[in-house]
From TrEMBL:
It catalyses: guanosine(37) in tRNA + S-adenosyl-L-methionine = N(1)-methylguanosine(37) in tRNA + S-adenosyl-L-homocysteine + H(+). This is tRNA (guanine-N(1)-)-methyltransferase. It holds the Pfam family tRNA_m1G_MT. Its main location: cytoplasm. It comes from the Bacteria.
Length: 245
């Protein structure tokens, strides 16, 4: 899958994605990253990409021409792809949207800066606006990095184990179960005995029970839009009965 990122800070994006499973996937050719700097499409010697907003107010706004130049160059460079603007006004990124984007061969991520970008760019070239939460950050680069990471995890071969993405939190609309590793006792806290039992069916049931129970405790809003099966309801009732492992 190919990610094209339109950003004033291409080195920042490329550097941040060079680590961990995403960096390995890039090295192995499972992912491709291309960056486009709007300054390269500015029409003055100072490579100006921002100007004062009409109507007054604080801050600066990214100009039309450099952004359109970068977007259109990115569109023409490879297979057709949606242009996604990282914006707090967009639809919120969640597991379902990440999985849907992973079905595409290519996406173009547009990173704003300053007070934002000229609305005409959005009207002319943006296919989707995407938010990472109800807050504002200094630019679109950090949200773009999160989108790349969240989407790439669903691509074949990116994670070390094929089941990892399937068992991630939110993959089935639930939080993840707790995880433990050696030693069996740490600071007086022991690993739940079921995980040491070797009974795979019991372990699977415990993990499912804990995922449903922790979701009920920490994110009950996720269960409001989910119809539990009879088995899941029984696991939740059992969890609520004692709240222990």
């Amino acid at each position: 899958m190919r990610f094209d990122v339109i950003t004033l800070f291409p080195e920042m994006v490329a550097s941040a994605l060079g680590y961990g499973v995403i960096g390995r996937a890039l090295d192995e050719g499972r992912l491709e990253l291309v960056t486009w700097n709007p300054r390269d499409y500015a029409d003055d010697t100072h490579r100006t990409v921002d100007d004062r907003p009409y109507g007054g107010g604080p801050g600066m706004v990214m100009k039309v021409a450099p952004l359109l130049g970068a977007i259109r160059a990115a569109r023409e460079a490879a297979a057709p792809a949606p242009v996604i603007y990282l914006s707090p006004e967009g639809a919120k990124l969640d597991g379902g949207r990440a999985q849907a984007l992973a079905q595409r061969s290519r996406v173009i991520l547009l990173c704003g800066r300053y007070e934002g970008i000229d609305q005409r760019v959005i009207d002319l070239e943006v296919d989707m606006e995407l938010s990472i939460g109800d807050f504002v950050v200094s630019g679109g680069e950090l949200p773009a990095l999160l989108v790349v990471d969240a989407v790439a995890r669903h691509l074949p071969g990116v994670l070390g184990h094929a089941e990892s993405a399937e068992q991630d939190a939110f993959s089935q609309g639930l939080l993840d179960c707790p995880h433990y590793t050696r030693p069996e006792v740490a600071e007086g806290q022991s690993v739940p005995p079921v995980l040491l039992s070797g009974d795979h069916q019991a372990v699977a049931r415990w993990r499912r029970r804990m995922a449903i129970g922790r979701t009920w405790e920490k994110r009950p809003d996720l269960l409001e839009s989910r119809e539990l099966s009879d088995e899941e309801q029984a696991l939740l009732d059992d969890y609520r009965g004692d709240g222990t492992d």
